[in-house]
Each structure stands twice: as structure tokens, then as C-alpha cells.
Amino acid sequence: MGIQFSVLSSGSTGNATLVANGEVTLMVDAGFSAKRIDELMMERGVTGQELTGILVTHEHSDHIKGLGAVARKYNLPIYANEKTWAAMEKAIGNLADDQRCILGTGDTRDFGSLRVESFAISHDAAEPVGYNFYDGKEKLSVCTDLGYASDKVKEAICDADVLVLEANHDIEMLRMGRYPWNIKRRILGDLGHLSNDATGELMSEILNGRLKRTYLAHLSREHNMLDLAKMSVRGAMEDRGCFFRDSEFKLCETYYDRPTPWDVLSER
């Protein structure tokens, strides 16, 4: 079957993604209540009993709000590195020992025929990571919540078939917005979030004949809009000489209030 995935919801208020291959189904982050996660999964025809486990990128509440409740409800193992475990332990509550699984930064783990690899990213969390998923020759990369893309991040995601990548904010909307300046400075910094322009610059550096789609994720409801994000990312790519036809490569949307359709890597 190969890899298929759905971004259940993504944004400043919560994040969760399903990745499956017909043998296993993993969730990346659980940033909503358990009830809301069940509702989002139901829209994609998945129940909690079908989940194999939950991977955690970092400990911020928009990524772990429902983590403990979902894990307890369905008796699921949670995978995170040691520093993330230490940072989120109080927030997620009591778990059985066999639900606490370490997946170190840079390590790989096989879940049946689906291989998962974590890689370090830059964000103001204990030890934040992105994830690569492999099934045969297929590769999906999920990379949000990063202030900038290091050379190692570029190396980790450059050969993906499909990429879920942050495009958090429009710089001018953020600067003119109602947030206090210390919060704006955090978002704009190297431990914050990628702007539309920064995402476009990154895409211009890694776009190749293999990458077919990039899903723009973690959009701020205060300081971004879907159409603006797509237009700005594409414009930043073109400013750097990176032109493409939609038949060759496509910028795709994610939503803060509903799932994306299933994307089956082998079918496109």
C-alpha cells in the first residue's frame, strides 16, 4: 500500500497528523482534547483502536494537549526523546511504564514495514524534532515549529516525496499585530517559527525532481492566511529563480479546523 497520511489539523491552537501504510497507523502529536482527536480521526475513517502509537515532536501544549488522555484511552505507547519526556511528564499525567518509549533524536525505529527517523530542529523547546517516514522507496517528511532550517534539516528533508512544512506567519502581519513585542521577537527568532518568506527560501533550496507536494502547516490564525501563505511561498521561490508547474510540484493546504484528504504517496 505504501505511505498515506492526513494532517488532522494544524495551527497555533493544535496539531495532529496521521501516518499509515496499511500495516500500522501512527499519530504525530496530539494537540487537541481526546474528544476532538476522536472527531478528527472519524472524519478520516480511523478509530483510536487502530492506532499503533503516538510520536511527539516537542512538549508545547498545541502538540500534547490530549496526549495523555488519548494514550490512556487506547493504551498506546508514546515515543519521544528523553528531554521531551522530562519536559512534558507532568502535563500528560500517569501512564504505564510500557507506554513510555524513548526515541532518541537522530534515531530510527521500525514499526512493521514503516520506518521512522527523527531529526533535530531549532525551536524553543527542550529537544524538538521532525520526523521522516519510509516505506520502500517512499519518503514523507514532517517538519514544523522551527525558527530556521539548518543544513542538517535541509539534508534530512531534501529527498522527500512529500513534505509537511511550517509556514507560520506573514512578517508584516506579525509586526503589525496585537502580540507584545517580546512574543513577536520570539516568533521571529531562530528558536521561533518559519515565516512564509523563509519557507519559500527553504523550498527554493531543496526543490528537486523528486519532491511532488509540500503541505503548508502550522499557519497562525492571527498573522497568516491560506491564500497569502501559498502566494508568498511561491513568490519567494520564484524570486530565487525557482519556477514550477502545478503538474510538477504543488503547494497544498492544511487547516486548523478539519483534516486534509488522505494523501497516498504511491498514487500521485
Write up what this structure looks like:
With 268 residues, the chain is an alpha/beta fold. 29% of the residues lie in helices and 25% in strands. Strand 7 and strand 8 form a beta hairpin. Residues 13-191 form the Metallo-beta-lactamase domain.
Task: Reconstruct the topology from this structure.
Layout: E1 4-11, E2 14-20, E3 25-28, H1 34-43, E4 53-55, H2 61-64, H3 67-74, E5 78-80, H4 82-92, E6 100-102, E7 108-111, E8 114-120, E9 129-135, E10 138-143, H5 151-157, E11 162-166, H6 171-176, H7 181-188, H8 196-206, E12 213-217, H9 226-239, E13 250-253, E14 263-264
Parallel strand pairs: 3-4, 4-5, 5-6, 10-11, 11-12, 12-13
Antiparallel strand pairs: 1-2, 1-14, 2-3, 7-8, 8-9, 9-10
Helix pairs in contact: 8-9
InterPro entries: Metallo-B-lactamas, RibonucZ/Hydroxyglut_hydro, WalJ/YycJ-like
Domain Metallo-beta-lactamase: 13-191
Protein name: MBL fold metallo-hydrolase
